[in-house]
Design brief:
alpha/beta, 14 helices, 7-stranded parallel sheet, 4-stranded parallel sheet
């Protein structure tokens, strides 16, 4: 399915040939029925299970190289594949088998005055390029979602996971072939040379869309240099606004969960906005709970006057995705000020209002321009699984094509279909 990295000397030629194979495979995959795609996914799962010792052995090579390079403990943890994580990959593949196949779905069929029927059909995007870092399980997850949605895919994992990704790629290739599908439907780039990424994002003849998954620096670079459409989110600066008509217990629970459930995720709250008239009564107890959890608080001048030990927030803090136990807090005069802050400093990811006033809550839903907007719920729910998508390939803060968690449907497009019976236009 791929060449050995050491034998690739002409990166541009290698990438062009890989792209051509992906384009050819995409046409075959688009015509595949659900049974063949599901059979391939199950075969890949079985192959990973049967060859897990080899997979873990290849992963140890990456771990040893990572330690030699001085990767920190968190990165090494994300890189590691143990039996439990292999089990999770296998279970993820089998879960995707159980999801409805979106391809070929026909909807919005309507009769026109001329007598024709006009509707839409869901179709694959074609070839999806995915660029990601660290976690080798992304190789299996991304391949499975693309396969189920009828798309060929070109995967470029991080160099730190090279051996792991190639072992997973081999299992995917064998699974595809056993189901009668082209192995080239999923190709993992077999070189760590970074120029391969530059080629990948400038091949619109072969790749229809790029999805980068990684740090802000990677995504900014891809977005700047790509000649292929990009589905992305740069960062998640998520907000919770506690209104003056909020239920105090709901507000406390949602504010705690949004921040402390997990710190390193893009749907974690980074800024808490609190209405001025309830701040003195509400914030001290909440601040104490945060501090007991080890959360560092940074606040506006009014916040610092209420909370002992709160650091003064800088202008940079309001725009920062901490991905850490740090929280910015601002006291605002009203819902307009809260929405104004979100407009100025939000990343378009996820925002939540805590209020018992349905009129204000619905206004917040309507006027806040983010991929997910919530009432009385934790921002941590902004997730494909929690939204009933079954799985996701990422979260998009773009406004075109896909927005929010991108599941199987987000990896498809639609075309118009017309049914007639000899109709001619007059």
């Amino acid at each position: 399915m791929s060449q050995i990295a050491e034998n690739i000397t002409d990166i541009k030629r290698y990438m062009s040939e890989l792209g051509q194979r992906a384009r050819t495979a995409s046409r075959q995959l688009a015509a595949a029925d659900s049974g063949a795609k599901n059979a391939a996914l199950l075969a890949i799962a079985d192959d990973l299970d049967n060859n897990r010792e080899q997979l873990i052995s290849e992963n140890k090579k990456d771990l040893q190289a990572g330690k030699a390079k001085g990767l920190d403990a968190a990165l090494l943890d994300r890189l590691e594949l143990n039996h439990a994580r292999v089990d999770s990959m296998i279970e993820g593949l089998r879960q995707i088998v159980g999801l409805p196949d979106p391809i070929g779905e026909i909807f919005n069929m309507n009769y026109m005055p001329s007598g024709i029927q006009v509707g839409r059909m869901r179709v694959p995007l074609g070839v999806i390029g995915i660029i990601y870092e660290s976690r080798p399980n992304v190789t299996a997850d991304a391949a499975a979602l693309c396969l189920k949605s009828g798309n060929a895919t070109v995967l470029r994992g991080g160099s730190e996971a090279f051996h792991s990704n190639q072992a997973i790629a081999a299992a995917i290739g064998r699974g595809l072939e056993s189901a009668g599908l082209p192995a080239d439907a999923v190709q993992v780039i077999a070189t760590t040379d970074r120029t391969a990424v530059g080629s990948m994002i400038t091949m619109p003849d072969y790749i229809d869309v790029i999805i980068p998954r990684g740090g802000k620096g990677l995504i900014e670079r891809i977005s700047k240099d790509a000649r292929v459409p990009v589905i992305k989110h740069l960062h998640g600066v998520c907000h919770v606004y506690i209104d003056d008509e909020a239920d105090p217990q709901k507000a406390f629970d949602v504010a705690m969960n949004s921040k402390t459930h997990r710190y390193g995720t893009c749907n974690t709250m980074e800024t808490l906005l609190v209405h001025d008239t309830i701040a003195v009564e509400f914030l001290p107890n909440l601040a104490e709970a945060y501090i007991n959890k080890g959360v560092e608080l940074r606040g506006c001048e009014r916040t610092c006057a209420i909370i002992d030990g709160c650091k003064a927030a800088t202008d940079e803090d309001w725009d920062t995705e901490y991905l850490a136990p740090i929280l910015s807090i601002r006291i605002v005069d009203d819902i307009d000020a809260a929405m104004g802050h979100i407009h100025d400093h939000g990343s378009g990811h996820t925002e939540s209002i805590i209020s018992e006033n349905i009129t204000k809550a619905r206004r917040f839903l309507r006027e806040v321009d983010s991929a997910s907007v919530m009432i009385n719920a934790s921002t941590r729910f902004a997730d494909g699984f929690e939204y009933g998508l079954g799985a996701e390939i990422g979260i998009s803060t773009d406004k075109f094509h896909a927005r929010g968690p991108v599941g199987l449907e987000g990896l498809t497009s639609v075309k118009f279909i017309v049914l007639g019976d000899g109709h001619v236009r007059t």
